[in-house]
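fyi for ur records
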Amino acid sequence: NLLQAGPILTRFQLPATVFVATEGIGRQREIWWDEMERAILESETLPGFCSLSVGDRSFVWRLGRGRHYGPEERRLDRLVKPWEAKTDTRLAFFFAAWKFVRPMAPGDQQRALDRLARWAELEPMPRPEYRTLTAAEVQSLDSGGLLEVGAHTVHHLDLAAHLSAVQLEEIQGSKQVLEALLERRVRVNSWRARIR
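which gave:
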């Protein structure tokens, strides 16, 4: 948002709100789904079998022909929605793993991603273009007049998968962190969930 959308919006004088999940501010990791994409969709060859256990949840997947992932497989996957991918493809594996991790609590998400990275034999180095914003960058994004920073949640959780107390902590916590960082009232929130 800062490096790509920000300059374009400013050049064309288009006001916009950038919603920030505050837990990621200044982190030296990618957002969880980007880490997952890197582990699963960026690797040319993966082991033929994946088994992850986190807390009381388990995930098992046999990759089949999805074990090898070259340019032609990538091209074909770009033509398909993940939920419509054929079972033995890398994209189907990615979507199944994404559904496994998405409803987890933040600590469990990180444990699952750490295990997935080890399984895929990935170096724990985030891609620079996928990193989250620093505190100074969030302040800079908010200081131009046309762009406004709004609250999202703390951890960018699937709020519908969590109890109302967690939902409230996520929404209020994000707003509080941003108000302290920006030294102003945050007027706009972006979240959707059904309250449980």
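The radius of gyration is 19 Å. thats all i got for now
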